[in-house]
Design brief:
Number of domains: 2
Strand order of the largest sheet: 7-6-3-4-5-11
CATH superfamily of the largest domain: Hsp33 domain
Structural class: alpha+beta
Distance between the termini: 49 Å
CATH topology of the largest domain: Hsp33 domain
Strand content: 25-35%
CATH class of the largest domain: Alpha Beta
Shape: elongated
CATH architecture of the largest domain: 3-Layer(bab) Sandwich
Oligomer: single chain
Bound molecules: zinc ion
Order of helices and strands: EEHHEEEHEEHEEHHHEEHHEEH
Helix content: 25-40%
Length: 299
């Protein structure tokens, strides 16, 4: 655990930059923490991979958050990653199951129509940069590419794969992000698109065959010289939750239920939904949350 990292590459003429990652361990960890069912696993997993790839093109200390909000049963998907390899993901509806799996693990209907909001945080900066675009397909990868084009005028190819075994457990997760810079030779873009269409590189299949991130890139870049650039930050599942934030989340329970907890006079254990970290909450702290809710309801 912890030895994987996002691999970065650049074409020899510097006009194409590439990131590739095997994120199997962190996506598996997310599934174990949140007991996500297949569609939630695939949606959150792809988003985590996408966030890791995007974050590797930022600067030291910066992070990116992806929030997909749709009118489908999954309602929302969130993933966040930092340049330094920390990543987490979450959906409020991890146990969603469709009536059947005739459509496979396409997340399109599960997420539905809606928007993707991308937030970029820099350390010591209060206001993150926000960009919002309509989702094109609800398949995550295409939506990230659409965002890059709409908000940053960057043409890209985003290929993400989360593969589940027959028990619905994560077998592999990873992806490739290829971005072309302004001034790129159009013949190069055509070559990449042609590689993509003729070779149809399948991330899950390649990972299941034991290929490494560098190998994942090869079929996309066939015929184009490229080299790896150092990016040595081990990826890890990390949640920056605090007791304060977890306590504040108790507010959703409402005054009556909080009073119920107080009446029982029992110690309260709350776990962070994103990472499973347990917190002990005292009855005084529950009382404070209730008081705060009450004051807000008076306003
Ligand atoms: Zn947490």
């Amino acid at each position: 655990m912890g030895k994987e990292h996002v691999h970065r590459f650049v074409s020899k003429d510097l006009t194409v930059r590439i990131a590739a990652v095997d994120a199997t361990e962190v996506v598996r960890h997310m599934q174990e923490l949140q007991n996500t069912y297949p569609l939630a696993t695939v949606a959150v997993g792809r988003s985590m991979v996408g966030a890791l790839l995007l974050a590797s093109h930022l600067k030291d200390g910066q992070q990116v958050g992806l929030l997909f909000r749709g009118n489908g049963p999954l309602t929302s998907i969130y993933a966040e990653a930092s340049f330094n390899g920390q990543v987490r993901g979450y959906t409020p509806n991890p146990s969603y199951q469709p009536a059947n799996y005739d459509k496979g693990l396409s997340t399109k209907d599960a997420i539905g129509l809606g928007v993707l909001t991308v937030a970029r945080h820099q350390p010591y900066q209060k206001q993150p940069f926000h960009g919002t675009v309509e989702m094109l397909t609800g398949e995550i990868g295409d939506d990230i590419a659409h965002y890059l084009h709409q908000s940053h005028q960057i043409r890209s190819l985003v290929s993400l794969g989360v593969y589940l075994d027959q028990n619905g457990k994560v077998q592999s997760a990873g992806g490739v992000l290829i971005e072309v810079m302004p001034g790129v030779e159009e013949s190069m873009v055509e070559k990449i698109m042609n590689n993509y269409e003729t070779k149809k590189p399948n991330i899950s299949k390649m990972l299941n065959e034991g290929l490494k991130p560098g190998d994942l890139v090869a079929p996309f870049m066939d015929g184009i010289p490229f080299e790896e650039i150092a990016h040595d930050y081990p990826i890890e599942y990390f949640c920056p939750c605090t007791k304060d934030r977890v306590i504040r989340a108790l507010e959703v329970m409402g005054e009556a239920e909080l009073q119920d907890m107080l009446d029982k006079k029992e110690a309260v254990h709350v776990t962070c939904q994103v990472c499973g970290k347990p917190y002990d909450v005292s009855l005084e702290e529950v009382q404070e949350v209730k008081n705060h809710l009450h004051r807000e309801s008076m306003n």
